[in-house]
Structures are given as structure tokens and as C-alpha cells.
Amino acid sequence: xxxxxxxxxxxxxxxxxxxxxxxxxxxxxxxxxxxxxxxxxxxxxxxxxxxxxxxxxxxxxxxxxxxxxxxxxxxxxxxxxxxxxxxxxxxxxxxxxxxxxxxxxxxxxxxxxxxxxxxxxxxxxxxxxxxxxxxxxxxxxxxxxxxxxxxxxxxxxxxxxxxxxxxxxxxxxxxxxxxxxxxxxxxxxxxxxxxxxxxxxxxxxxxxxxxxxxxxxxxxxxxxxxxxxxxxxxxxxxxxxxxxxxxxxxxxxxxxxxxxxxxxxxxxxxxxxxxxxxxxxxxxxxxxxxxxxxxxxxxxxxxxxxxxxxxxxxxxxxxxxxxxxxxxxxxxxxxxxxxxxxxxxxxxxxxxxxxxxxxxxxxxxxxxxxxxxxxxxxxxxxxxxxxxxxxxxxxxxxxxxxxxxxxxxxxxxxxxxxx
Length: 419
Ligand code: UD1
What we know:
alpha/beta, UDP-n-acetylglucosamine1-carboxyvinyl-transferase, Chain, four-stranded mixed β-sheet, 26 strands, 31% helix, 27% strand, binds uridine-diphosphate-N-acetylglucosamine
């Protein structure tokens, strides 16, 4: 297995181009199943999760062509059964359920694996499909969904932890071809949901209210092919801004949507950093004094759970006591034990990490356990004395396009050791 060696203590400076959003691209690629006509998706990041999704689509019978960031897909005929060996590697494979149900009125998909960030049910997705008239059966590790007819309905996707991002996308993708009107109440408001809705609208769907808690969909008879460019990855951009905050003189992320980044740039400002916005570029540079923070992860437009681990890496060396509470995935703290091995002082109290800033971290061999946790360990390594060896790098390659090369271009010293 590849590993990454981070030689700590280098200062970062310069501009990094941000890739297209992984979390937008995955459901958008799945949505191409909704039409027999060809679709062209651009700014698709080169990531292993994207590769898995394209493999799943090919296995389902789609013609898939890829040339750098551009993907062409034609789903003229599709199979409705996705077995375990093709879906097990990625939780987001669950988002083929909605489009298969919408188009073929049936889907059998093995229950997915994915990030180890606690129990990640799909009950809300299934509740949405049932409301549209589908019957759902789970057996032998497969979920089987069948709907002789899909009929619009009012569906609530609220849960104790907020809404569901992929669940909102999934129900939206099934409902665009249902008879009549569907209202999704308690919909996720994330920009990735809006991006998916915009692609579906370009395919001929009638969707109103994406980006708010209430989405209205008027079913249409069929969808057609469309072209779409994926939005910038706000989590990749946020990760580079935190890297810049940790060890940068001035780091700029370019080709971003600054509005999508407010939930990260606001706490960075509060923590004492200078943030400047210039068109589609956002820069971070040190202020006179770093300050501890109180942070709560909440659904968009709140501070994203996908940035929690990286922010913990920053706060680990910020003087004072920071308190970080996780409200979306309460068990998502696997990075804490590893940061402590590097000398961080973090007390985990249920879903809350109490971080007492230390002056320095020290390099150590550490184990990545999920995508964002592994990014946090690389960021921690940037500020540590000596060398940090991040193992199980495949997690990071699921969601960051060449993170080592991009950080090196900014002045970091990171080696990838091939297994
Ligand atoms: C997406 C993102 C992931 C991000 C998460 C929250 C993708 C590919 N992944 O994941 O990076 O961390 O949003 O912003 O887009 N829940 C239920 N029942 C369900 C579904 C979810 O209880 O049927 C709960 C989850 O356990 C969690 C919360 O709802 O506590 C939010 O999960 P959800 O928004 O569904 O996450 P994903 O869409 O899987």
C-alpha cells in the first residue's frame, strides 16, 4: 500500500487550482442513467471514487468515454442489478438507486461499504422511494426496490442529524420521472444538491427550490442528453486553505466559488487569519495572533463535517482551548487518536473534542482511517517536527486529486512511496 511521507516545517506560498467537486460529480454521473441519450460532464476530478462510479456505470451497460476531466456517458440500455463486487468499495454507489428506479422502476443494489465514519444508514433514501410507491426489500446484503408505477408524493427527509445529501439527490432522481408532483421537505441545502438539480434541469427535469429546505419536482415523461460542468470542490478548497493557515505565508485557492467557502473562511477569520477574496480566488495569510475556536459541524450553510478533521489539525497547535462538536456524524473522530500520537492534546468527550493547543507536533507513523481524517494527518505533518508517515493513502486518493503534488507546488516536501 502506498504511503506519504511529509517532511514538516516547510512554508507554503502560491496558488493552487481546485478540481471539480467529488460529491457533486458522483450523483451527477449516476444521473446519466436517466436518459438513453449521451451526456457530457466536464470538470470531473481524477479520483478513485470517480473511477469506481464509472466502473459501476460500465458494468450496468453504459458506454463510458473519458478524456482528462471530460466524461461522456451513453446509457442506451441498462441493467438494474449492481452486485456486491462492484459497489462494495464506495458508499456513494447508493446513488444509482434513484436513477435506476426512475428509469426502469426497479433496482437491486448490494448495500454499499465506504468511509468508516460510524453507522451510515440509508433508511431515509428508502423511505423516500416508498413514498413514491416503491416496495423495498433488504435481503442477503442487497436492497431490492420495485415500483410498478412511481407517483409524486410529499416526502420528509429530516432526521436527528439534519437532512441527507445523497438521499435528497436519490429521491430527486427518482421523482423527476414520476407521475405528478413531488415535494421534498427537509431537503439538504448543500451546493452539490443544487448542482445535481441543475444537471437534471438541463436534461429536461422540472425542479424548483434546490438549495432550500423544500424542493418541488413536477414529473416529466422522459429526459434527454445534456452537457454540464461540475462545480468546484469546496472541501478540497477548504483543505488547502487550512493547509495555508497551518503553514503558509500566503496560499490562494483558485477556480472556487467563494460563497460555498464561507463556512470555512468565517472560522478561519475568527481564528485570526486574513482572508481575501478576489473573483474566483480566495487567499489565506497569517494575522497577528492565532485564536482558539468553538466549532460545531452542521449541514450547509453551517461548518461542514467534511472539514472537521482538518480544522482539528489546525487547532491542535493554536494557543488556548478549542471545542469542536460533531453533529452530523457523532463518531467521526478517528483522526484524534492519531493526532495525539503526534503530540496533540485532545480530550474526546462523546461527540466533542476539547483541544488544548500545543506549541508543536512531532512527526510519527500514523494511519489514515477515512478520507478527511487522512487529509488532516497530512496537514498535521506539515507543521510537525521531522517526518510524518501517513499510511493507507488510498483513503486520500478517493477524494483529493494529487494532493501531494499540489502541496509540493506550494512549497511542501512530500514524498509518495509506492508499495
Ligand atoms: C454526503 C457526502 C459526505 C458528507 C455528508 C454530510 C457524498 C458522496 N458524501 O454523504 O462527504 O460528509 O454528505 O455532509 O456526497 N442519515 C440517516 N439516514 C439516511 C441517510 C443519512 O440517518 O438514510 C444520517 C447519517 O447517518 C448522518 C446524516 O444523516 O448522520 C447525514 O448523512 P448524509 O447527508 O446522508 O451523508 P451522505 O449523503 O452519505
